[in-house]
Amino acid sequence: HGNILHPFASFMIMQTTKTMALRVRQQSKTALAIAEFLESHPKVTKVMYPGLASHPQKQLADKYHRNNVHGGMLWFDIEGGSDAGTRLMNTIQRPWSL
Fold first, then answer.
1. How far apart are CA 83 and CA 46, in angstroms?
2. pLDDT in tens, 41-98
3. Largest alpha-carbon pair distance within the chain?
4. Cα–chain center distance at 36
5. Whole-number Cα distances in Å, 97 to 11, 22, 50, 90, 92
6. Which of 2, 69, 72, 87 has its CA at a distance of 20 to 30 angstroms from the CA of residue 26?
7. Nearest-angstrom CA–CA distance, 69 and 72
8. Cα(26)–Cα(97) distance, rounded to whole angstroms?
9. How far apart are the C-alpha atoms of 94 and 59, rounded to whole Å?
10. CB–CB of 56/12 below 8 Å?
């Protein structure tokens, strides 16, 4: 068996790579919308997403991320610190990741 990929696995990989660029662009667009919403929320104290104008390294991100596609990951702080964050994550619908 060695290093030979199963034909069906190869087929599935080919199918998912066809739409990968579209999916990554949409993830980036959605992450930016979420980051902008969170940035304007009164209980959010800090939002870090390279696509935000307020990000300290926005120019660097724009230089290296083609077509303003900054990915789908962001993080944010809320009033009340870690305890408040844990309460928030325990009350929202999953899936989520700490």
1. 16
2. 999 999 999 999 999 999 999 999 999 899 999 999 999 999 999 998 888 887 765 5
3. 57
4. 13
5. 30, 23, 19, 11, 11
6. 87
7. 9
8. 20
9. 34
10. no
- DSSP for 36-66 reads HHHHH-TTEEEEE-TTSTT-TTHHHHHHHSG
Q: Half-sphere exposure (CA, 13 Å, Cβ side) for 5? A: 8
CA distance 16 to 53: 32
In which residue are the tokens 């739409």 written?
19
Query: Which secondary structure element, helix H or strand E, spans residue 30, and what is its range?
Result: helix 20-40
Rg, the chain, Cα only: 18
